[in-house]
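Memo subject: From amino acid sequence to discrete backbone structure tokens
Action wanted: Derive the backbone structure tokens from the amino acid sequence.
How to read it: Take the token row as a discrete description of the fold.
Attached in line: The record itself begins immediately under this heading.
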Amino acid sequence: MPRAGLTTDRVVAAAADLADETGFEAVTVSALARRLGVRDASLYTHVRGLRDLRERMALLAGGELIEEIAEAVAGRAGKEALAAFAGAYRAYALRHPGRYAATQIRVDQTRVAGSPALRRTGEITYGMLRAYGLGEPDLTDAVRLLRSTFHGYCALEASGSFGAPRDVQASWDKAVDALHVALENWPRDGSGG
């Protein structure tokens, strides 16, 4: 029988909070049970195991991230939308390191298909990029470029790996400017490769 007051949503939210505090990889069913003051077995009423818990954390965090991005890009297009998207992405990654790490795991595609928040991620991201006149397969390639750039930058910044005296924000702004130029001048030879 589930513990009074403990729901799947509360369990997942507590796991996400724990991830932000201790790191995504440090979240285990046992660590979460200790945090919630219950036995490990009590959590299996709410999650099937560690993989299920982590996927649920990824879905939660992905939904939070896209909500922040959607709010930032609303009413914007082109470079202004790109800068807002990038800024919201980076702010979330730095503010919620454990949650952000959860967004980087591979989630079962049936779960992704069933997640309105993650479907919205595609809609917002592709919508922003269509303003640059991109269609497939260029849209997919551009999404991969943005995600790689944003993730790489955020991961390096979070780990303190930028040692040069140049302001990290100034470098970020320059990277976003460079992405804008790349998107405006996207190679469109139609070969897909």
Q: What stands out?
A: Residues 72 and 84 are 5 Å apart (CA to CA). The radius of gyration is 19 Å. The chain has a mean pLDDT of 92. The longest helix spans residues 50-73.
